[in-house]
Structures are given as C-alpha cells and as structure tokens.
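Two proteins, back to back. First:
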Amino acid sequence: MTKRAPALLYGVCPHLKRRHNIIAVYRETRIPGVAAPHYQVEDIECDYSDECPLEKCPLAENAPKHPPGIGLG
C-alpha cells in the first residue's frame, strides 16, 4: 500500500503577493533496487486555487524532496 503524508508548506505566493501556506500531499513510491523510499508531491490544497491564474504553484514546485520530518529533505 502506498503511504501518503500531508505537509504544511509556507512561502511567498506570487499570485497573492504575500506569505501564504498550502498543504502538499506527498506520496511514497518505491524505486526498484533502492531501499529508501522516494516521495513526490501528489496533490496540493490551497484556499485560493480556484482563482489562481498560475499553471503551477511555485510553493509546490519548490517543495522539499521529502515531507518535512521524513528523510533527509
């Protein structure tokens, strides 16, 4: 079963032009031959996603490679 880990991420949102937070949901994936799990952002939750004109969320794009508190970040 694939593990999921939500993480609260902060940063300056170019759409809102101020500091904002999103929830990034990480999904654990396994790479054959590698013992350590790999994580990737599967989904983001933002209160302003319906009105945001940006194609990709910069906060999600700059998210750490591992959920905070898991792995080496």
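And the second protein:
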Amino acid sequence: MLDVLSNLVNQLFGFLKDNPMLIAGIFFLIKNVYAKSQPFPTVDYGHVSAISSKTDFDKCIKEDGLAVVDFYATWCPPCRSAVPVYARMSETYHAKGVRFYKVDVDKNRDISGGENVSAMPTFKVYMKGKCVGTQQGWSEGAVKKLIDDVL
C-alpha cells in the first residue's frame, strides 16, 4: 500500500514538474474567477460621478472646465485598484475646477464605443466636449501628468 501511495505522489510531482505552464494557467483562471465574484470597490470620499447614459456623458464633457473620465470594467483588476486613488485625485483637483467621472464600459457600450475605448482602464480628459488627452492603463503618475499638462 505504501508503494502505491509513493508511486502516486511521484507521478503527481512529475506531472507538476513537466507542466508548469498548465499549472500556472489553472491558478490564473482560479484567481480571475475569484476576483470577478468580489464586489467592485466603492469609496465614500471624493468627487467622482457615475455616468450612465450617452445624454449625460455629452452634457458632462461639454461643461466649462476640465472633465476627466475613467472608462472602467468591474472585472478589470487595474480598474479595481484605481478606485480609491482616483477618488483621492478628485479631491485634490476639485479646487481647481476639474470634474471627475466614471463610465462602466460593459453597461455603456454606446459611450465607450463612441469614444474608441479598447483597453481598461482608459482615462480621457475633455475640454468643452473635445478630448484633449488619453491614458490607457492605470498609472497614478501618468493620469496626474495627463491632467496637469492640460491645466
């Protein structure tokens, strides 16, 4: 009996050693399934408004001053990590008249499609309805630079 168990353990370790990419893929899949099951993070600070219609989007970006829009997906890990930092950023720039918005690309495909958003997150800066800057991917420094360059 001990020989059978020892043989099974040796075969298992041999399989793991011979298939590292398969094992990594399985762990990646499990991680993603778990991440998608978690609620999207929310914060109770900041000045970020959700946009849920094309009409609202058009109105928000055409107002005077600068508008920053975060195009995100709830299943996107970088989008999740950006939530608290983006909210703090909105507090910092609020005094300068910069408005912060967010658009869920899965719920607002007409907006994200019309703005040619192909990667999440994508941050766009608008001045009087015109896009004046775009940052694909989450980098706090890059988003701040994007805003500062336009200010």
